[in-house]
Amino acid sequence: MVTDPVASAILIGSFVGMLLLGTRIFLAMGISAVVTLWYMGVPLMVVFQKIVNGVSSFSFLAIPFFIMAGDIMTAGGISDRIIRLSKALIGWIRGGLAMVNIMASMFFGGISGSPVADVSSLGAVLIPMMDKEGYDRDFSTTVTMSSAVQGLLVPPSHNMIIFAMAAGSVSISGLFMGGLIPGVFLGLALMIYCYMVSLKRNYPVSNTFSVGELFDSFFSAFWGLLTVFIIVFGVLTGVFTATESSSMAVLWAAIVTFFIYRQMTIKEFWNVLGRTLQPLSQIMIIIGCAGAFGWVVTWLKIPEYLVNNLFAFVDSKIAFLIMANLLMLFLGTLVGMSAQILILTPIMLPFLDKFDISYIHFGVIMIFNLGIGLITPPVGGVLFVGSAVSKLPIEKLSKSMLPFYGVMVLALLVITYVPDLTLFLPRLMGLEP
């Protein structure tokens, strides 16, 4: 490894400059790495080797399978049954349909790991339902977008796999379990806020509680819910790796939708494959280019420089976590999530070691921060999807999101400074010392 201030300036300057010009993130990372190595006289073949190495991990195979499992659940009627079960569970509370939205995201978003897929699929169903019951459309949309963030925390989440690979020595199973309680905690916080708003605005009760409907909807959704059980139980017991459990989830979801629910056709299955390839190609090219970019960052000793100089005045865990949260919240509004995880994780690792912060705990904090960025202007991708689904302008949704930002930031502070919320289950399962 070398220390070259000029090369570091070229790398960071070209990367930031291309982002400001609107260049795609994978091009910005790849081109800045090429330009820097060219300046230093390093063979450019190294860049392509690092891109290939970046996507060669066996664990990354889980990403397309989790995305596909989520698409199959949507196309095959599993998500509709989850909505019905959620409605039977809490639809009898005032503002219950908003809570149904949150609970459905908890189930569905955890499988797909994609807030964009969550908002586009569940939003297309639940926002019109909430319209019919008298909810304000901007409120319905902001509930849908906010609840999509918790799907990033609830296992399984392919973003946790990306963090585990970037960190290098983190248990994927530990991350899955670490995100469960924070995800549920965030969901409960959002539900409490929705209940308070529903009382103030006199939103309706969706339905009366019925034991018969509860059991009927549970048995209707049972086979689909087993998809979640297969993934979590398989990984925890060691029967499957995360990659193997993702492929089993696809197989089981396909069996359920083809042969039990009988709502999936061969033609629709081919459409699912097409829908899977689009986000997959975006994620994998970002991972590959981030692998090359991250290698150059490490080779130039930029993380070591930050530890020894830029953040030398940070002498406590509390101060570091405040700064890290502010940095990740800010950057999350500008750059996509996968790229941020791959860029920031190697830079943050020395600080985690310095302040004895659990990698699992910090991984959950990072994913939560960057998830908030997905629903925050100017770049927030989920915000634009919510606008497209609801036909409402970004400006109106951004204003309606303000109290939800407050709820999520409060939840983030609790998760940040009460690490036992994250680490209780991993320690219980022997996945964290």
UniProtKB/TrEMBL annotation:
<feature type="transmembrane region" description="Helical">
    <location>
        <begin position="214"/>
        <end position="240"/>
    </location>
</feature>
<comment type="similarity">
    <text>Belongs to the TRAP transporter large permease family.</text>
</comment>
<comment type="function">
    <text>Part of the tripartite ATP-independent periplasmic (TRAP) transport system.</text>
</comment>
<dbReference type="GO" id="GO:0022857">
    <property type="term" value="F:transmembrane transporter activity"/>
</dbReference>
<keyword id="KW-1133">Transmembrane helix</keyword>
<feature type="transmembrane region" description="Helical">
    <location>
        <begin position="359"/>
        <end position="384"/>
    </location>
</feature>
<feature type="transmembrane region" description="Helical">
    <location>
        <begin position="322"/>
        <end position="347"/>
    </location>
</feature>
<feature type="transmembrane region" description="Helical">
    <location>
        <begin position="283"/>
        <end position="302"/>
    </location>
</feature>
<keyword id="KW-0472">Membrane</keyword>
<protein>
    <recommendedName>
        <fullName>TRAP transporter large permease protein</fullName>
    </recommendedName>
</protein>
<feature type="transmembrane region" description="Helical">
    <location>
        <begin position="91"/>
        <end position="111"/>
    </location>
</feature>
<feature type="transmembrane region" description="Helical">
    <location>
        <begin position="58"/>
        <end position="79"/>
    </location>
</feature>
<comment type="subunit">
    <text>The complex comprises the extracytoplasmic solute receptor protein and the two transmembrane proteins.</text>
</comment>
<feature type="domain" description="TRAP C4-dicarboxylate transport system permease DctM subunit">
    <location>
        <begin position="13"/>
        <end position="420"/>
    </location>
</feature>
<keyword id="KW-1003">Cell membrane</keyword>
<dbReference type="InterPro" id="IPR010656">
    <property type="entry name" value="DctM"/>
</dbReference>
<feature type="transmembrane region" description="Helical">
    <location>
        <begin position="404"/>
        <end position="425"/>
    </location>
</feature>
<feature type="transmembrane region" description="Helical">
    <location>
        <begin position="160"/>
        <end position="193"/>
    </location>
</feature>
<keyword id="KW-0812">Transmembrane</keyword>
<dbReference type="GO" id="GO:0005886">
    <property type="term" value="C:plasma membrane"/>
</dbReference>
<keyword id="KW-0813">Transport</keyword>
<dbReference type="Pfam" id="PF06808">
    <property type="entry name" value="DctM"/>
</dbReference>
<keyword id="KW-0997">Cell inner membrane</keyword>
<dbReference type="InterPro" id="IPR004681">
    <property type="entry name" value="TRAP_DctM"/>
</dbReference>
<feature type="transmembrane region" description="Helical">
    <location>
        <begin position="246"/>
        <end position="262"/>
    </location>
</feature>
